[in-house]
């Protein structure tokens, strides 16, 4: 067994008694109460999910395994010449909460190379889809198509017991994750580069191979590592993570569960916001026709969007109440690498104005930018200007967190998710008695 799987098994065995004790001795202890506003309003703030892999504080932002984004980037091992850690070392960390040594990270990189080959039929499925298919529909279809590869589905059919289900889930998770860069890059080259596919180079790590198959030189490999890690996880309640958790709780394997999560990510209120930020900004710049994007002109454009009943993409959040540290991390990258890039300047100029406009508008509880407001600029700078592809990049990253969570869900024997619904009349009765 690999070092990662052995350490994971130890961690699981240490953790299980904690969950069992809580369930056995404290099942009736209340964590909170649900209001009528929450029942109708998308369960905002209802505390009914458990994960130890990441936690989102409204004011501080995300912590992965207890560490902030800068701490994670600083602590994980990096290959010589790279500024960002490998996705594989991050995968080790997310699964085990331990910072791997360089050797342990290398072992995962080698392990992934053996799992990375995408079956030929997946490309046939993608090639058969119309060229105006959205890249996210293609990404989701490719993942679903591979369900026949599931070790979990096979071993479950053969009668594997509940407490061992994490093992084939782990195998599926590694097999699936290792293939995603190839699938993503294939979709990109197929749709946008005249089908000029670049074969994988299995000497490279996850991020390096992705950059190679995209056909983009260094430092895009580091950009890819940064991007995938930043987008990996945002605790369990966001729509994509929650969807993966929900679907996997039926003991659907992670091929079904991740493709469902990708479908959730494809919504404009969620991951598609990164596409819409660029669409909005490009439309805006086109309308400017070379005119300087002064604060006044930006204000007008933002108000035009709000007055049309639309949301300003890239701003607001269901949990965060300050600027997203994932936004800040990417902004710092831009300030270092591309401070004078015109698109960055426009995005920055919007950042100077949009929070005030949203506060004046008075609806959004959080007027600050989220991860999606900044990510497209970096892609655009490196030549990935086809913004309908951006959410696929997010999806590859999001797979890391959701697949780690699905593995732990099975390890801890979490049951089928099944909240209870009430009727409107019941709520009216409850309200009348309050
Ligand atoms: N522009 C305009 N109005 C906004 C807004 C924005 N950026 N953000 C919130 N609002 C509005 C909501 O639409 C809502 O209006 P109604 O009362 O008319 O329904 C009101 O403000 C209150 O919403 P909220 O409580 O502040 O926010 P929610 O938890 O309901 O929604 C969203 C959170 C992220 C969906 C929301 O802020 C939004 O639509 N933002 C723009 C889209 C976006 O950037 N999404 C990506 C979020 C990050 C992410 O998940 N990435 O994948």
Q: How would you explain this protein's 3D organization?
A:
Helix 10 packs across helix 11 and helix 13 packs across helix 19. A hairpin with a 3-residue loop joins strand 1 and strand 2 (61-64). Helix content is 59%, strand content 2%. The protein has 20 helices and 2 strands. It is globular, with a radius of gyration of 22 Å. It has 434 residues and is mainly alpha-helical. The structure holds N-hydroxyamidocarboxymethyldethia coenzyme *A.
Task: Supply database-style keywords.
434 residues; mainly alpha; Citrate Synthase, domain 1; 59% helix; 2% strand; binds N-hydroxyamidocarboxymethyldethia coenzyme *A
Please give a quick description of this structure.
The chain has helices at residues 3-26, 36-40, 69-75, 87-96, 102-113, 120-127, 135-145, 151-157, 166-192, 206-214, 220-230, 239-248, 254-265, 273-288, 295-307, 325-337, 342-361, 372-381, 390-411, 424-433, and strands spanning 54-57, 61-64. It has 434 residues and is mostly helical. A two-stranded antiparallel sheet has the order 1-2.
